[in-house]
Design brief:
The protein is α/β, with parallel strands linked by helices. Helices cover 43% and strands 11% of the residues. It has helices at residues 20-32, 54-68, 81-89, 107-114, 139-156, 176-184, 186-190, 204-209, 220-232, 243-257; strands spanning 2-5, 38-41, 74-77, 94-97, 117-121, 164-167, 197-198, 237-238. The structure holds 6-hydroxymethylpterin-diphosphate (HH2). The site of 6-hydroxymethylpterin-diphosphate has 21 residues, from β1 and β5.
């Protein structure tokens, strides 16, 4: 899953694809490089970020979706029913909601009605507060229990279980140690029986383990190691910024495990 942030402020690529023509070219490049899906987002959820209005989010993503959603496999990274509805009408196939259907009461119905794929992600708190001293007794068990409940909720409102994937939400209310533990103990989330998404790409835990306690991003080589580690533990969807390099790394990991 290639990351396409049409935002001025995303934590690692903010501003890069704010012009629709740049975003459209990047989306096409990601698919050419081997992405199975491009995740288009118009709102940053980096630690400390404030939410944007529906109009602003639509203004950012609509021109990109109009150009590519009918042509490429697209997921819309949004928590807003209004954005999801427009994206699905333009041909997006999946809704990636970092709030796992908790933010907008209308989103579940929009996904169910469209027969779209759905990604449910774990987050502790909100982007504004989530990195303020996150605590768990057992991070893997608590994240899995949350995802199990959200999965049951989504199925209950009419989203077929076979269209749903689960994501422990790397960096969303977790310390670096908790993020690494979630990948180490991915079997706890995999036990829920759905495909697991991991988005470790460029995240600050990668910079921190390399020795910078104030890192806000992580380098490419560390991102590739995280993707391979997650793949080896059973993740089947890797959400990444650097598609070509990740496809190359995963090709080798796959050749070894096959
Ligand atoms: N991470 C980000 C955004 N959306 N969705 C899922 N399912 N999993 C993730 O790990 C995930 C996500 C944050 O990364 P990015 O999009 O690069 O940054 P920003 O939120 O600042 O736009």
């Amino acid at each position: 899953m290639g990351v396409m942030n049409v935002t001025p402020d995303s934590f690692s690529d903010g501003g890069e694809n704010l012009r629709p023509e740049d975003a459209i070219a990047s989306a096409r490049r990601m698919v050419a490089e081997g992405a199975a899906i491009v995740d288009v987002g118009g709102e940053s959820t980096r630690p400390g970020s404030e939410s944007v209005s529906l109009d602003e989010e639509l203004r950012r993503v609509e021109p990109v979706l109009e150009a590519v959603a009918g042509e490429l496999p697209v997921s819309i990274d949004t928590s807003k029913a209004g954005v999801a509805r427009r994206a699905l009408a333009l041909g997006a196939e999946m809704v990636n909601d970092v709030t796992a259907l908790r933010a907008d009461p209308e989103l579940a119905g929009v996904v169910a009605e469209a027969g779209a794929y759905l990604c449910l992600m774990h987050m502790l708190g909100t982007p504004r507060t989530m990195q303020v001293d996150p605590r768990y007794d057992d991070v893997a068990a608590e994240v899995a229990a949350f995802l199990e409940e959200r999965l049951a909720f989504a199925v209950g409102v009419g989203v077929p279980e076979e269209l749903i994937c689960l994501d422990p939400g790397i960096g969303f209310g977790k310390t670096a140690e908790q993020n690494f533990e979630l990948v180490r103990r991915l079997d706890v989330v995999l036990a829920l029986g759905r495909p697991v998404v991991i988005g470790f790409s460029r995240k600050s835990s990668l910079g921190r383990i390399l020795g910078d306690p104030d890192a806000t991003t992580g380098p490419l080589a560390a991102s590739l190691a995280a993707a391979v580690a997650a793949y080896e533990r059973g993740a089947t969807i890797l959400r990444v910024h650097d598609v070509r390099e990740t496809v190359e790394a995963l090709a080798v990991a796959k050749a070894v495990t096959a």
